[in-house]
Amino acid sequence: MRRGKRSKINGQAWLFGLAVPGVALFMLFSLLPYDKMVGQWPLGIRQGEVMAFQELFDHRPGQHVEGHAEILSLNANGERSATLATEHAERQAAMQATGPGSFTLHFTSSSPDEAAAMAFVAADLPSLVVLYAQAVADSLPIMAPPVSLVKLQRDGRKGEPYLVQELVTPEYILKHAPVSMTLVGRDGTISPEDRSVPAPMDTIGKDNGTSPFRADRFDTSATAALGLLAIAEDREPLLRGQAGAMYDRVVGGITPLYAMKGAQADADAPQELQEAFRAAMGSVADQARIMRLAKQLHADSALWAQRLLAIDSAAVPVLAKGRNIGLVQAEVDRTRELFLQRLFHPEVERFIGQPAPVQAPRAVALDPWLAQFRSGKDTLRFVRGKYDIDHDLVVPAGMAIVLEKGTRWFMAPGVSVVVNGELHMRGTDVNPVFIRPQDAAAPWGCIAVNGTGRTRVRIQGLRISGGSDLLAEGVYHGGMLSFIGADVTIANSSMEEAFGAATVSVKRGTLHLSDSYFAAAHGSYVRLTEVKGAMERCGFGQPDRASATDGRAALSLRASQMQIKGCTVVDMPFTALRLGRGSKADMSGMRFTGNGTAIMALDGSSAQVVRSEFTGNKKVFVLRSEHPLLGGAEVKEEGNSYSSNGTFKEVDAASKLVGGGALAVEGQ
Amino acid sequence: MRERIAEWKHMLPDGTGEVAVLVAQLLVVLLVVGWAYNRGFRPVERGPLVRLHLLVIGMGEALLVRHIHDELWQPLIIAAAVILAGLIDRSGYGRGMGVPVMMIAALLGLGFVLSAVALTVVAVLVYMLSPVKKR
């Protein structure tokens, strides 16, 4: 039998074949109510595709929306560089594509008021979720750079809506985070704390290769906030640390960050960090915290609805790109409704997974040797007498140590005492508390207190020498006496020969230091980081080494505020007082004699010096900006006396010295 | 029973569900287009409703397109599949239905379901309205 054969398809078939579906689509998209159109479609048909069809086939009459936003223009100079122009300025930047429609600009110059790097993500109506999430993030305890909506004219073309956010870079952390925070690199690296004086004698805390990324070290508030944002935004990669994290070098903690979708390249965080994020998010406690946060927000649901409506009214006209107002309204309503639903009623288990208990760090058991000194449920008391501390002592959390007058500790080389509670030393002038090395040539470690913020440390009548510092569990205790998160009072004490970075190191706490004498340090005498307090009638002299290693100073303040009265700093071949990272100091009745530099103020620090004497210093005031992003320093001086000093001031363009000191020098 | 089903589900490799849905979608497309294609032929001349070779090539194309997002490779894969299907379909029956099926498979692979449905309707109508020369 002869077989039939399909010939070339004729015009009639083409005409009907194309016209019938065309008419059907035209009718469907021109007649379908918008609230149905923006709803869930069957067969897994996605919204993006539906909107593309809507643009082609929806020809119903209606108003079209067009809005205004700040206009930026971006002109490419070659493949990887561009110039970004705003109304006021032009900035050169290196450009890097991070995904379809998104890119980052890393600016070649930066200043305290300008971003170092910015992410641009092409925006559309679904981008409203990003703006909603940002508004929520602003109200939660998590660091999230602000997002703004702009119209970007690329290479002279018509302006298109883009979301812009400052990138979280080391520079951003420098400007906006506490001084001890450092950004965890995309490869999982953490820049280590400087251990300026090598002290290889630690007998504990070698870290044993354990990872710094542990679920129990995550900042609980920021972790819960990130979890809730991930659910509200329906953005799973956030749970794996896609937005990055900061490492707190004071306590070794991890603080998650938040960034808008598309701000970073889609590269995953390092495996180790991802697992830690997963474990932290998956804990029973964290999931309960997420629910609590959601409840708190739900309590203000009317306020949130208003706030999101305000975002809509500002952003929707820009994002609508001239589309039909009915469609836009329907899509916006649905987007807002779904977002609020996820925010107020987060399906934590479905999104994050079954909660699992986080393995809590093993509780420290009381050292058997210490048991004999137990004088109460939570107190270890050492009475007058000699004690050889020949092994490391880690005191359990909440347990206080009391050294009564006449107590004498003799520390073996490298040995440290870590107190996770209060510390009291009750020496007197006649019967001080002594802490000395067993071998004068081999330094011991440090006496460290890990506090919870207001843990009390009271030290009176202490004579201490021969210690160094300690790096334990990723936490650096940078002084012979080192206090973290503690309320410290030190009086009538004498501290000599410290081999570590500092004699006394205090981080994130308060310090009241009075009537004490410091000598023979190999590093600094007092190092303060994020500390408030006062110093009175203290003397600093006779450093052990003359070397002025980078950053060495008798008194070194970072992000701290101190009142310093009646202190004397003598014969330091380096800096007597160094103020860094936005520190503030009020000084009066001070004596700076024979120092390399009397006062060095850097990076947004400020100081006031009154009724003080400056004699025989090589330099009196050095004011400068080491990080241009942080700005310069400002010092006001009044009623001081200057004699036989070398250079009176070295002040860079960003810094300012206010007062009549110059006249005093001229008069010398 | 639900627990048992959940257990079985866990035994399947990740992405099995997606692949199964894709196979089902392609099967439906082949059935519908095949039916329309066969309409003009005498009953004895009609081929099978589902052309197995088109199912295999279309499935391969859809899977590759779904997993390779490279700007260069994606269109190359689609072009190669269309050319391959066009060559295989050159038989005594005249033009085969490989070309539209490959285009539909590409759309399904890319996740454009609505477009795939529209193209299927176009293909069905065109085949139903185009004549078959009887010899």
Describe the overall structure.
The complex is a heterodimer of chains A (668) and B (135). The mean pLDDT of chain A is 86. Chain A is 22% helix and 35% strand. Chain A has a 20-stranded mixed beta sheet that branches. An eleven-stranded parallel beta sheet of chain A has the order 14-17-20-22-26-28-30-33-36-39-42. Chain A has 668 residues and is an alpha/beta fold. The termini of chain A are far apart. Chain B has helices at residues 2-11, 16-38, 52-67, 73-88, 98-110, 113-129, and one strand at 132-133. Chain B contains six helices and one strand. The mean pLDDT of chain B is 84. In chain B, 34% of the residues are buried. Chain B has 135 residues and is mostly helical. Strand 1 of chain A pairs antiparallel with strand 1 (132-133) of chain B.
Q: Keywords, please?
A:
heterodimer; A: alpha/beta; 20-stranded mixed sheet; 12 helices; B: mainly alpha
H/E series of chain B: HHHHHHE
How far from one another are the termini of chain A? 125 Å
Distance between the termini of chain B: 58 Å
Give the helix level of chain B as a range of percent. Answer: over 70%
Q: Approximately what portion of the residues of chain A adopt beta-strand conformation?
A: 35-45%
Strand content of chain B: under 5%
List the total number of helices of chain B: 6
Note poorly predicted spans of chain B: none
Report helical residue fraction of chain A.
10-25%
- What would you report as the Rg of chain A, rounded to the nearest angstrom? 32 Å
Oligomerization state of this entry? heterodimer
Tell me the layout of helices and strands:
The complex is a heterodimer of chains A (about 675) and B (about 140).
Chain A (H helix, E strand, L loop, with lengths): L4 E2 L4 H21 L2 H4 L9 H11 L12 E7 L4 E5 L4 E10 L2 E6 L9 E6 L5 H12 L7 E8 L5 E7 L3 H7 L4 E3 L36 H14 L11 E4 L4 E4 L14 H11 L2 H16 L1 H19 L5 H20 L3 H5 L21 E3 L2 E4 L2 E5 L3 E3 L4 E5 L2 E5 L5 E3 L3 E4 L6 E5 L9 E14 L1 E4 L4 E3 L2 E3 L1 E13 L2 E3 L5 E13 L2 E3 L4 E13 L2 E3 L11 E6 L2 E5 L2 E3 L4 E6 L3 E5 L2 E3 L3 E6 L3 E5 L2 E3 L3 E6 L9 E5 L2 E3 L3 E5 L4 E4 L1 H6 L2
Helix pairs in contact in A: 1-3, 4-6, 4-9, 6-8, 6-10, 9-10
Chain B lengths: L1 H10 L4 H23 L13 H16 L5 H16 L9 H13 L2 H17 L2 E2 L2
Helix pairs in contact in B: 2-3, 2-5, 2-6, 3-4, 3-5, 4-5, 5-6
